[in-house]
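#data-curation
PF: Archiving a pair of folding outputs for the training set. Convention for this channel: one message per protein, sequence first, structure tokens after, nothing in between. First:
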Amino acid sequence: MASLILKEGKATQSMVPLDKETVCLGRSEGNDVVILDGRVSREHARIHVGDDLITLTDLGSSNGTYVNNVQVARQVLMENSEIRLGSTVFLFTDQDNDFPEAAHQAQAHKSAPQSIRYQKEMSTTEIDYSIGNTDKEPREHMVEYRLQLLYRMARSLHSYLNLPALLQRAVEILCLGVRADNAAVLLMTEDGDGFIPSAQMGPKGTRWPVEPPENILDKLMAGRALISSPEDISKESDCMLWLPLWDQRRVSGLIEVARPIGRVHFDAEDLAFASAIAGQTAAGISDARAFRVLRDRHLALLKSMESENPFIARSQAVLEVLRVADRVSRTSSTVLIRGESGTGKEMVAQLIHRLSDRRDGPLICVNCAVLSDALLESELFGHEKGSFTGAVKQRMGRFEMADGGTIFLDEIGEISPETQAKLLRVLQENEFERVGGTRPVRVDVRVIAATNRDLEKAMREGAFRDDLFYRLNVVDIRIPSLRERPEDILPLAEHFLAQLRRKIPSGIRQISKSAEKAIQGHTWPGNCRELRNVIERALVMGDGDTLLLEHLPPEIRHPLPPESVVPQSKEHAEKMQILEALRLCQWNKMDAAQRLGVSRSTLYNKLRKYGIPASDTTDTSCWIQD
């Protein structure tokens, strides 16, 4: 702990611990340290204890405050600084010393010959330099003092990731280092049309900061630091330092520092010191902004994890998926997501979109498997009026809707070769033509595709274009099936239970041990979607406060042998998706068709194909049957 040690004179304390923010010294009884000296004013000086700097300020005393025999108005205290108030002398130490040893050092310091004391002070790593009422002091002391301030500023870069605090620190150190009364940091606006005062220091009531004149601004924007006289800025009160802040090869702001007229003008050494502080400040600004971006991305990732359909990630495989999704979201690269039906491919696409710079743009999802070739082309690219029977007006396609955002193409392996060729053109040229149109339409869209098919096998069989595959497969994300990450099964079941209880009136609050064992032992060919449906069925069919084994479907209570379990077929996945859309839309066919991205007639064709009734008459257990 920093402290003051009494060397000469009389005071109420021989050793003063600086253990609070402000310590007042003077002759009056109300001071923290009462000095019994007639030459000391009633309220003589004040010490401010900051995070890094400890500053001594004279309070307008009659006989002045001296540090190392130099009168000061305000001074940063360094190790072994000697403070004199009247005829009373204190030694400042920033070391953790107990009283007897510290007092002994103070007495030894006092009795040592002057030449030895001077050499000892000069040999320390923290040599003091006073900022007083005079403008001319020994140059060698100034160099040492400024090196100390540069060191303090360097330490601040690692301590202040809060940008306003860092900038305020910079102006304080600048004022101390160049004996200035005013300093300010101005950061450039996002559009580059002006500057915003972001930190300042100076007497109250002054018009500060000063808007830089055009001739000076031109030099600053070219990266030049300079000294100006009052005549240069048509101002009769200050001489000034002007310093650019460089951030990745461009000027992101400026610092201005002023001394009142009548004081010695700034010189080249002042400019060199201030330029060094400006360089450190610019680096700190860049770090603080990078930290803010990382913090925002972290918060966005946490928010997405807590959203309506979060990833419950306990397994390393899923954590790796999240890490890749976070990294790829910072780019506009095309992504191909692979995994069995129900593993959460669309959720990964949503996560990438939410973390990307396109988060404020639209996310358009298209299921390519539920549309015929003709309808899919119209859905993706739109059509002109009269281009086919029923095209009574121009229609915007999904790519146009996604302009400035992201389009998610689910089941990309199901599209025809003709549609593959048109999709390839969009990926290559960022343009397409509507069905029946001749005018190219340009879009700025990030494409994320997903499939549960083996596209390499489809390429060998000629069912999927090689060039389209390589365009899509820039970044490949593979989502493991639920049976490949058994440590996630029970956490997911508990999450679905808590989530669905908000929608379904049920007294069930927990899962019994026998039900947990059955859930853990099931192979889950339908993955997370099947697990969610099973938990929903249990909430609907069960009673009491516990989900019991008998609330689970027979295939989970009495599992099949492992060799008889196969992954979901395409038809099963499509059927389950249609059933889920109908359930979410309360079996409203128009709303379900819109949710699926198909026409109502296409939906009715699918209902007939899979034997799904037109109204909600099915037992929910059929949702997980093949």
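PF: Second:
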Amino acid sequence: MQLNPQQQIIVDHPVEGSALVMAGAGSGKTTVIARRALALVGQLEPGSHLQMLTFSNKAAKEMKERVIRLGGRSCLDVVKFDTFHSYGLKLIKDDYAGYGLSEGFSLLNETDCTRALRLLAKEYGLAKNPSAEDRKRLNPVAWFGTWSLARQAGFDVNNPRNKGELCRRLQQEHQLRGDEVELAWNTLSGYEAQKRQANGVDFDDLLYLPLLRVAREDEYRAKVRNGLGYVVIDEAQDTNRIQYELIRHIALGHCGVTCVGDDDQSIYGWRGAEVSNLKRFVSHFRAAELRLEQNYRSTQAIVEAAADLIKNNQDRLDKSPFSEGAVGEKPKAYLSSNHYEMADSIAERIAAGIAQGRNPNEFAILYRTNRMAMLIEQSMRRYKVPYHVVGGMSLFDRSEVVAVTSAMRLAANPTDIFSLKSIQPYIDGFGAASSFALSDWLTDEVGASLLDLPDEIPKLPKRGLAAFKAFYEDLRSEAVFSESAADFIKWVVHGPMAVLEREKDEQLRERKAQHLESLARDIEMELNERKVAEPELTWRSVILEVALRDARQSEAEQGQVTLSTVHRSKGLEWDEVFVAGFSEGLMPLDSRTELAEDDAACGHVEEERRLAYVALTRARKHCHLHHADTYAFPGGREDKVYEPSRFFAEMGMESYRPSLEANNADDFDFSQFEQEFLGLARGMR
């Protein structure tokens, strides 16, 4: 590939200098980063390496594959690829004692955290059956979201001096009253204590704990810097304050850093990302400001419309995106009376395109919140359009996979009460009450360990204790002597845990077996990929790191249209994109809009505008923006009325009300669809 002048300047930037690369949508960023990495490798001091950091395992894998394709596998000796969290985990594993941890410490997953928080809240007095209004305020998982954001902003939640500010945030964010503030504080601080007692760390710890040490300990900072020759960070606009400060303390004054990002595509402020880190980086590192402005993906008309939209944001970094591709047609605004008409007009156009011979995977329907998918699906089924909804349960959150990972965690960490509670249903003769009694003993007894169980434990029947002792001895032995992940998984299936045998539904049992086969293949593939750079790595270590894996959302097959939230679409592209719900209150999202648990929270209007910009720039050739005057979301008592999005006017778009062909679709039974949808949802649990 011939580099354009802007790309060549970035690749050739000297190793001594730092640079901020403002990479617009569709600008060939991945190739430029890979070539930049290979250029840097040739300039590193002997014995030093290049550290590349990004946000997802998928992105890190793609970057690694691109570097290998361009430079060969030999470059893996001097280029390391990590997500921020896997990098933090490596730092902790290399000196776990220095972090106050024991060997075999556990990496807690989301399920561990959620279960612990809910149980602790009940222990501290949370009402069993709060009113519908109180249920939203008094949600310990939501409290933890506020707690986590405070940590990502730099708060030491374990420092008693910060209690006042943290309680103020909890009170304000969740409208807590009176003793409810103390209830939230006790729950969250209790979780932190329980985590330490269990020799465990969570996702926030993977970044925050290393930052504390490199900021405070000169000797440790020098150790981390040893052999580090240069750092390249992708998607830098999505860094939170902790991630930025970690790199600043490690690299500033030691080596150069290239940050690649686009403030116009910063869409994760709701989970702690700070787009202002780009300006901090330029100031702290005295970094050169370089640009990738040519869009190779979209037509000129789409790029110009997106630029007209995003220029309404204030205080942007200066750049002028452009395209030299086909002029193309301008994005179109479609106004419908209700969501039924909107969904039908989208489905009808896609069905017509497929009838003309186009592949369904050339189309995507994007939306701001997950609830929109159910409204769209009705019409897709009526018009017989094959589709796939991106999302659903991750492979690594499924009960049978959690059983495997929890078993290995418990074998490695004899104080892990979180995995003990996860694995309890698979231990015959050892009930839930017994697991709580054993957990209490591990927490309350100084030096307690599953490796040294006494003959009697308070509130734990002797039969239950004997059953657990026999099981744990068998588990520890299997963890040591299994030669591969596949062997260990076979024991989980055919041994005393009998994970599949406990499932009575034959179809679900078969599906679970397939998930476990996928897990074994994934672990084996990852082990083989990482062995080159980490020769001491074992299959056991890979299983213990499963919580770091991406959600592994399934992707549309060759003959399917993609339905996705805009957040999940980032980094993807299609020939023709439909944005459903381009309405004031939906895009931009209104803070009053009801959200599902896995929806991205409402951001300020500038972030919502960036989200619309991302949606537009997923399209290569055609982009259609759809508004409906009313939407009847599932669970709502009445249709909600919306105005067209302000973003239409900001792009100077003319609106168009589509007319539908009569009798193009079969009659649709919504009640049948809802029953099938709910049945599918139950089957995914």
